[in-house]
UniProtKB/TrEMBL annotation:
The organism of origin for this protein: Pseudalkalibacillus berkeleyi
Residues bound to substrate: 36-40, 48, 52, 80-82, 84, 86, 203, 209-211
Name of this protein: Isoprenyl transferase
Recorded GO MF terms: transferase activity
Function of the protein: Catalyzes the condensation of isopentenyl diphosphate (IPP) with allylic pyrophosphates generating different type of terpenoids.
Pfam families in the record: Prenyltransf (PF01255)
Keyword terms, alphabetized: Magnesium, Metal-binding, Transferase
Note describing how the cofactor binds: Binds 2 magnesium ions per subunit.
Residues reported to bind Mg(2+): 35, 222
Domain of life: Bacteria
NCBIfam families per record: PRK14830.1, uppS
Length: 255
């Protein structure tokens, strides 16, 4: 167990480089673009789905570590609105993963006080996938530990479009006027509004782009990229990302 009474705690006891995390300044919300499953598998001469299976285990490890060091919410990009372009068998495999993940790890998540959430377009997601996730959301909604928010069939432009549609409809119904619309109001229609904006975004696999992920919420987020493929991502890599985050100067436009 980590000693939460001291601010500076040495982590990565087994790694050559020790990283000192300031546990009083851990980001509340970390968002992760879990990328590189296919390339991880290809490098090993395995089918792409083997990478997705391996990637699932990493989600568990990262959730555990994040919870341990005091992160309040983790948003994990699991499937984008653009990922339907992939071969059907791969999409089907990915859509079976939430069910598998929860079947294996839900008891553990409950024990660890994790709250499971989902954000994304429900339409198109197979019913067995939704059923598994909704059950997990139901069974963990009384928990008050780490929020594990899965972005499933999520696309930021879709999210913003939906937000604008619902906001306009509320204006039409006379709930408020267009004059009253400000950033906070529009933001309140976004799917992750309750959780707040991420302070830190991690993207694995070396790609330097956002791929339609949380464009509204990432306005002032610290971006952290690594070449590591998602299935190779370790707890110590999360520590490293948070350590780097803690050593950046966030100015929010100021000086
Ligand atoms: C990320 O890994 C997982 C999903 C997008 C579902 P990829 O499947 O994109 O892996 P690469 O980028 O092809 O290596
Ligand atoms: C982003 O990865 C989506 C997820 C990780 C779920 P992609 O692999 O789909 O992104 P691109 O196609 O490289 O931009
Ligand atoms: Mg990819």
């Amino acid at each position: 167990m980590l000693n939460k009474l001291t601010n500076l705690t040495k982590l990565n006891k087994n790694s050559t480089e020790e990283v000192q995390l300031d546990l009083s300044r851990v980001p509340n919300h970390v968002a992760v673009i879990m990328d590189g499953n296919g390339r991880w598998a290809k490098k090993r001469g395995l089918p792409r789905i083997a990478g997705h299976r391996e990637g699932m285990k990493v989600v568990r490890k990262v959730v555990k570590r994040a919870n341990q060091i005091g992160v309040k919410a983790l948003t994990m990009y699991a499937f984008s609105t653009e990922n339907w372009k992939r071969p059907k068998p791969e999409v089907e495999f990915i859509m079976k993963l939430p069910e598998q993940f929860l079947l294996t790890y839900l008891p553990e998540l409950i024990e660890e006080n994790v709250q499971v959430r989902i954000m994304g377009e429900k339409e198109g997601i197979p019913s067995y996938t939704l059923k598994a996730v909704h059950e997990a959301v139901e069974r963990t909604k009384m928990n008050n530990g780490l929020i594990l928010n899965f972005a499933l069939n999520y696309g930021s432009r879709y999210e913003i479009t939906q937000a604008v549609k619902r906001l306009s409809s509320d204006i039409e119904q006379g709930k408020f006027t267009s004059e009253e619309v400000d950033e906070q109001k529009l933001g309140s229609y976004m799917m992750s509004n309750e959780i707040g904006d991420p302070e830190l975004l991690i993207r694995t696999s070396g790609e330097l782009r956002l791929s339609n992920f949380m464009l509204w919420q990432l306005a002032y987020t610290e971006l952290w990229f690594t070449d590591i493929y998602w299935p190779d991502f370790k707890e110590t890599d999360l520590d490293q990302a948070i350590y780097d985050y803690q050593n950046r100067g966030r100015r929010f436009g100021g000086v």
